[in-house]
Specification:
Elements lengths: L1 E3 L2 H9 L6 E6 L5 H13 L2 E6 L9 H6 L4 H11 L5 E3 L3 H4 L19 H4 L3 H16 L3 E5 L3 H14 L4 E5 L19 H6 L2 H12 L5 H13 L4 E10 L18 E9 L2 E9 L9
Parallel strand pairs: 1-4, 2-3, 2-5, 3-4, 5-6
Antiparallel strand pairs: 7-8, 8-9
The structure holds adenosine monophosphate.
């Protein structure tokens, strides 16, 4: 693999290689198996893959979160060196390379898509995500880019960004990789206090139980179950739980407003001590005939 810190050197390298399609996996580092599932898919599908490691300051609405975000560049590079091929690239730039002085930075509005869930609780977050993704796409010029369904709303918004700007990149969503107890892998998991980490499987267990409840219960009852289960686990506090459709992300409040031919996801944000975790799971309409 080749490691680059500057846009110029990365672009010189990528431009010197005739390979198609070119794959891209943007990350914020502290790599785990969730990231590697995306990277492996790109390696299978693309003869040239770029992985970026960049903790993007513009998407953090909470300064403390940015400061304590895990950074393990040496370990990341060593893990990447085990799987990347000779010409695959790692882009690990300083902030000034991504946002040089004078760079025109757009502001984005995704309409209804960023006015729910993460958009409410993390004001400005998706504007920052769109800025960095847009800039990284401009630098790397990938044919395919790989994103995790773990960040479900982000995936929908990135697809919308690409559609709005008419970018020639295919966005590929990849399934959530979980720990043995069901906790969705996340770079932030290493920040969890051990006693909370031990109990954090409750998030996925609650989502799974809630999705089963859809057979016999209506949504207010399911929401009540999720809130009471999470909030009665010491150290855990529910921030939101919504069941939304996969395209418009609009919360549904009654089961009879769910359409059989649409896919729905239950999305959750939970505070475990001082660490905020998100997860989601598909909620199948009890009468859905749609093949998944
Ligand atoms: P991050 O480094 O957290 O910005 O994540 C980089 C990419 O990896 C994003 O597209 C995430 O959705 C994806 N990702 C993070 N955790 C997981 C996971 N547990 N399973 C699948 N993809 C993930």
């Amino acid at each position: 693999m080749k490691v680059f810190n500057t846009v110029k050197d990365l672009q010189h390298h990528l431009g010197s290689i005739k390979a198609s399609p070119k794959g891209f996996v943007p990350t914020m580092g502290a790599l785990h198996k969730g990231h590697f599932s995306l990277i492996e898919k790109s390696l299978l599908e693309c003869p040239l893959t770029t992985v970026s490691i960049f903790v993007n300051p513009t998407q953090f609405n909470d300064k403390n979160d940015l400061e304590r975000y895990p950074r393990t560049p040496q370990k990341d590079l060593s893990l990447l060196s085990e799987i990347l091929r000779t010409d695959d690239a790692v882009f690990i730039p300083p902030v000034e390379e991504v946002y040089p002085a004078g760079l025109k930075i757009e502001n984005y509005d995704f309409g209804k898509l960023d006015k729910v869930m993460e958009g409410i609780y993390r004001p400005g977050h998706f504007n920052g995500v769109a800025q960095v993704v847009s800039r990284l796409f401009d630098i790397v010029k990938p044919d395919r880019a790989y994103f995790g369904q773990k960040d479900f709303q982000q995936l929908v918004i990135v697809r919308e960004l690409v559609r709005k700007k008419g970018l020639p990149v295919k966005i590929i969503g990849c399934p959530i990789v979980r720990e043995p107890d069901g906790l969705a892998m996340s770079s932030r998991n290493i920040l969890l206090e051990p006693s909370l980490r031990e109990k954090a499987g409750i998030i996925f267990k609650t989502l799974s139980d809630a999705s089963e409840m859809l057979k016999d219960s209506d949504i207010p009852e399911i929401k009540e179950f999720v809130a009471s289960t999470i909030n009665s686990t010491p150290g855990f506090k529910l921030e939101y739980f919504e069941i939304v459709d996969e395209n418009e992300l609009q919360p549904v409040s009654r089961k009879n407003s769910m359409l059989e031919d649409k896919k729905y996801f239950g999305c959750i944000a939970v505070w475990a001590g001082k660490i905020r975790l998100i997860d989601n799971i598909e909620f199948r309409h009890p009468y859905s005939k749609k093949v998944h």
